[in-house]
């Protein structure tokens, strides 16, 4: 196991195309870090820089205290799991898992021992004689993980390893990866665009936006106190409701038309008086028929025990998550106007209208 360090790391492609704008982060020995963000945010580029598949334009990447910028991938003592499995179709499961050890001249006894151990961890012992075409998608991904485990690397790198699996398999494989990290406790860097994967797997997560780490923190920290509008709108399902408002000197909250919203002045920080801000409310922290914002109902999604109520206040979409039973006696009609507001337990979120950054910690 090892520490992983990023110091002012940047990446610029020819033509002065900057894709990573300076990342500083320390990853502790045995920590599981998830890098999450939309397509094109630089998360896979950052992963490839750690692996040695992309050069570092500026700054240093260190593994276990040693700067690895100039080292070849084979010299970095890392193991990478790709999204497309990259298994040799003509080899058995055993041969695929053993291949990296074989070309490194490990003894047959050591190869057998390492493959058997990895197969036992991943429940592949009965599949070692099969070829990839005889395996399911989840089994192939476990083989790819097994090939990485036998290396016994200092750092595991996972590059969107579950994106080719169906929804049910992704849930199963998330559990497998959690169990694997609990057993091995190897320092791991995991890249995904799926915020559910990030929330369930990460000990800490890095939310990337256009090559910039918008926020680094535990899943709970990122969910409860998003550092920016981008994080608030990316993390959470559905994402946070964000309503542009103006707060007057008496801490009355007004929408863009000047209409006063039914927001308790006591819930508005005094420091926000006379400012234009963005007010945020999580869909699951709101309730129907409560003082807050009037919305016109556009759609209701029934999700079993829960429902998503989609509405609109002026030009702003608002979503509320609540139990189905909450509207049993008062069914909602499309087009009707209802008041929705805070549940009174969770605080409102406030963001700067110009910068998008969080205003109140």
Automatic annotation (TrEMBL):
Residues 4-235 form the ABC transporter domain. The keyword Nucleus does not apply. Pfam families: ABC_tran, OB_MalK. InterPro entries: AAA+_ATPase (IPR003593), ABC_transporter-like_ATP-bd (IPR003439), ABC_transporter-like_CS (IPR017871), ABC_transpr_MalK-like (IPR015855), ABC_transpr_MalK/UgpC-like (IPR047641), Mo/tungstate-bd_C_term_dom (IPR008995), NA-bd_OB-fold (IPR012340), OB_MalK-like (IPR040582). Keywords: ATP-binding, Cell inner membrane, Cell membrane, Membrane, Nucleotide-binding, Sugar transport, Translocase, Transport. One of its GO terms (biological process) is glycerol-3-phosphate transmembrane transport. One of its GO terms (cellular component) is ATP-binding cassette (ABC) transporter complex, substrate-binding subunit-containing. GO terms for molecular function: ABC-type transporter activity; ATP binding; ATP hydrolysis activity. This is sn-glycerol-3-phosphate ABC transporter ATP-binding protein UgpC. It comes from Pollutimonas subterranea.
